[in-house]
Known about the structure:
globular, alpha/beta, Rossmann fold
Amino acid sequence: MAQPPGTTILYLVRHGQTEANAQNLICGDAESPLNEKGRKQAVDLAEQMAEIDFDIAYTSPLSRASDTCDAILAGRDVEKIVTRDLREQDFGEWEMLNYKTIMQEHPEAFKLFSEDPYRAKAPGGETLAEFRDRVRRAFYDEIIPKHTDERVLITSHGGTMRAALCLLMDLPIEKYYYRFDIHNASLCVVQFGKMGGRLLGLNLRKEEHWHFEY
């Protein structure tokens, strides 16, 4: 399908699996590189996206996102721009911990966060409101204004993609952020123009990887 004039096509990709993902740890802004499965997922996704002609690529500086971007861009002459505002939400002292440990070691902070994740935050971390504003800067100040009529690859994180989808689709983040389940090494596609965002694809992956995670 031809790209409508005056629009930007955003190819939003979550990084492949890391050991933190495999162990159900909150990774946030911490480094956690792709594991063997995650590297294979990135290569598999790259094969699925081989026919897409990207004009530019943006990535979070965290290695799991940057390495996923490199896998997709392998063999292409496409510029990759590292953007700090595409990092995952900062969970401060909770990073690299599981929920059971957090509830045991930070019971009051976790209770506040569970009741109001939009305004509460992990000790030393970001609120969802602060995170939303950072992701908005990346898309509305840096990416979209510069790339009308172009196709843009953006590799980042599950939280970053959920925040971006809320922003691009004009959905209140405090209501819809946790309604998107973004899988490792999956693709979401948004067409963005004067009327805002139009969701073209969500959680696209190789068919044998499709499954529901409850």
